[in-house]
Structures are given as C-alpha cells and as structure tokens.
Amino acid sequence: MHLENKKVGIIGTGKMGQSLLRGIIRAGKAKPANIYASDVYEPALQALKDELGINVSTNNFDTVDNSDLIILAVKPQILRNVLRGFADHINENKLIISIAAGVPAATIEEELHEDTRVIRVMPNIAATVGEAASAVSAGKNASAEDAEVAMEIFSSMGSAALVPEHLMDAVTGVSGSGPAYIFPVIEAMADGGVLEGLDRESAQKLAAQTVLGAAKMVLETKKHPAELKDMVTSPAGTTIHGVHALEKNGIRAAFTDAVMASAKRSREMGK
Hints:
Blueprint: E1 8-11, H1 15-26, E2 35-38, H2 42-52, E3 55-57, H3 60-66, E4 69-72, H4 79-86, E5 95-98, H5 105-111, E6 117-122, E7 132-138, H6 144-155, E8 158-162, H7 168-176, H8 178-195, H9 200-221, H10 225-231, H11 238-248, H12 251-269
Parallel strand pairs: 1-2, 1-4, 2-3, 4-5, 5-6, 7-8
Antiparallel strand pairs: 6-7
C-alpha cells in the first residue's frame, strides 16, 4: 500500500486525533477530500470539517467503509467496544493503525478478523506542532510495506522509529508520556528565573528555548548527553553549581522512576 491517493480514516477526534489530522494535511500526505473522521461529538466534527475540509460523520461505518487505512485514536478503555461495532466492515484490503496506549496489536486482531493487518503506533502530543516522537511496530499480519506507510505518516509530523512490539510499554514511558515530564521542568526553570527577577514571559521563553536547543544538540551532534553537559560545565563555574543542585535533589532517579511508572501502567492497561 502506498499512501498516495489512498483514503485515510480516523476514528476519534480528541486532542491526538485532531493533531494527526492536521499533521497529515500539513505534510501533504493525503488530500482533505480523501480523509474521513468520525466521533460521537458532532459540534467538534463540524468544526474540523469547516477548518480542514475533511469528511466527517458520527457513524464509524462511514469512516471504515470509505477508507483504505483506518487510524484508531480512541481511548484504550473503549477500544474493544469501538472495534466490535464495526468488525464486520473490515476486510483484508484495509490497514488498521492503532495509537491506543497499552493495547497490543493482538488484542485488536482478536476483536477483528484474525487476518486483519494491524500496525501499533505510540506517538506523543508534540504531533500538535509537528515534532512528535513516534514508535511503530507491526502486528503478525502486517507487511513491511504496511509498516512503511505508518512510518511515512508519523515521520511527517516529527520523527518515527520501528521497534519490536514488546518494547512499546518502554516507549510509552519514555516518549509517549515524556512531554508531561518536560512541561514542569520548563515551568520550574521559569519560576527560578522569576524568583531571580525576570518577568514571567521572558523567563518562560528562555526556559522553553533552552530545552528545545538542548534536545536539538543531542539529535544533531549525536554526542552522548553527558559529553554535551561536560562542554558547558567549566571548573567552579555557574553551571556545575546548578548541576550539583539537581543531582542533590535526585533528578536522575526522579525521571527514571517516572519512565518506569508510566511503562508499568501501560502494561497494566494492555492486560
């Protein structure tokens, strides 16, 4: 399956579903006329239709029947019921892509026909600004080409990596939940700036750009984060004093524990 001229369906138009819709259109991966979206909340659907020019419906059958590939962007807790609602409308020609956190491809395959082609993806909310970190894994019936289609879609709104499905809970802990770990960091850095006399707007802008710049250095230089840290920590300087304060307060253990707790919850949700 090549994405060009294929019809794309999205079931669930919450924050992530809307981010995916906008990302796909912004990247030119599908024409609005070839995109179908469904949800239970009609006013939001109509707003998306007016904004993006896509096809919308409160009936999932309309999305499923008109689409070559269907992205499931509903909450994990209701995914089984949603799948049962349109299982008889799925055939071997349709590709299913699920972004439901913690739900294995096998669970989706069980609810649909056993030969259904399923791709599981873990993106994050940064898809909203075209900077998502997404992991892609293929179900037992999905082909390499199916995985390439998913990679094409999710690479268009950030970066994507192919991973074995048994590591998707770890992915959830690192990048799926990761933005929520970083937002308080930016807020706290800005608070420190305000405490030292900066106005709130300037402090927040400087903190956010600092996080963005540091991340870009890791990605573009491909240097180990520790090596980059050493580049800016001169002997007895300001930065090493700041780093010492972070280490004294257990920053490494706090972030590691956050990843592990999120991954654990992802495993629980998949049972």
